[in-house]
Hints:
By secondary structure, this protein is α+β, with helices and mostly antiparallel strands. The protein has helices at about 1-30, 40-45, 60-65, 110-120, 180-190, 190-195, 200, 205-230, 245-270, 285-295, 355-365, 415-430, 435, 440-474; strands at about 70-80, 80-90, 95, 130-135, 155, 165-170, 175-180, 235, 240, 315-320, 325-335, 335-340, 345-350, 370, 390-395, 400-405, 410-415. It is built from 14 helices and 17 strands. The two termini are about 25 Å apart. The model has no long low-confidence stretch (mean pLDDT about 95).
Amino acid sequence: MLGAVVLLHRWLGVAFCVLFAMWFATGIVMHFVPFPSLTEAERFAGLAPVEHAETRISIADAVAASGVIDATRVRLVQRSGGSVYIVSGASRVRAVRAAEGRDAALMSADLALAIAQDHARRRGLDAARAGIVALEDYDQWSVPNGFDRHRPLFRIALGDAAGTEIYLSSRTGEVVLDTTRSERGWNWAGSVLHWIYPTVLRSNWSLWDRLVWTLSLLALLAASLGALLGMVRIRMRDRRISTPYRGWHALHHLVGLAATVFVLTWIFSGWLSMDHGRLFSRGELSPTEAGVMNAAADWKAAPSFDRQPTASSVREVEWFAFGGHVYRRDRSALGVQTLAMAGDASRAEFLTARDVEALAVRLAAGCGTPSILAGNDDYPAHSAVPGAPVYRARCGDLWFDIDGAGGQVLQRLDASRRAYRWFYSALHTLDFPVLMAHPRLRDIVIVGLCALGFVFSMTGVVIGWRRLRLSLMV
């Protein structure tokens, strides 16, 4: 039996030793340089003030013109060529011109370039040498599924010193992603390798999911067998741990013993990153809950955008259904907004606990009074709007975390999802509250442990190469 374990570990080790080393090395890079994205602060900084005079059609007419039958949110933004309504639903997103209700999909490369240049200038970026690079469905940085409703995407290179590239949705004309030369370079050495993320593979999500899940499971098996053998082979000499091996095998054994707990938990939690509902719940609203949350809004009752006689600083207006009502949200700065509910003349900055409670009791039974989430909560959730509260509604064993700024459900936490938070997130990114409170210490721990894992893996690479070379010579 032990011989079979040795043989299986040996050849799994030969097959996966380089992959292990790559995962640990790229994990360090990913900790400091995440995958490229457009932050809410960057997106909002690129918005222009909305022109009141250009808004001639109602929200209800905009929803009807969009053809989005399950519309749950409507935003009014200003872009080159006029203001547009962005109508979003579970199925798709579409843009409608606010002046006459015509489709506002982005079809012109010249208009795409003008929008990108305006966005860049408002963010203080140099766009003097901007030019269209491509109109395409996928490239290395736009493969995530979240961009599916916006494809194909216009990619514009600004030609600035940072090598910035901006991606625009052909469906709405909005900027949805940006990257810099530095981000792209580091991510080739980080996320792309770590996630096994080449465009040709990741563009087929189902194939990528099955392949990486299987590879991670086999890697976990290899590590588990190695841990078992490492414990069995321990020798004690003068009350000290010793090894029966010599040379690289001895180093592999001893470093492996020191790294066993971290390697096993990190590979296990990395495998769980590909769970996608296989063992744990996905944290998504059930169809019934989604139906309550996104109940068909009475867009005819939506509070209109006031055509004030003086210029306004409002840069985005959003209407959304929440708790059986339609709210209007005026945003004049990243952390400055006002909310108004249909049929109510009063205004507030954020949703209140009472607003959230009215929705929560419709989502699930047995809900208590919502509480504001503390910053050091064990199950953190954050609004994209600085200073906005996040409310937690506990409905028995089911929790909902709701953004007080825009009414989105940020997390749906049942017992399975709460367990997943610890088995995956805590073990893989070490976001334990005590470490999150001391970010510099967390950096040191993560880099130190990943470096230890890398050294251990490299001993396996040397042993594996020698074993493979010997086998080929026989």
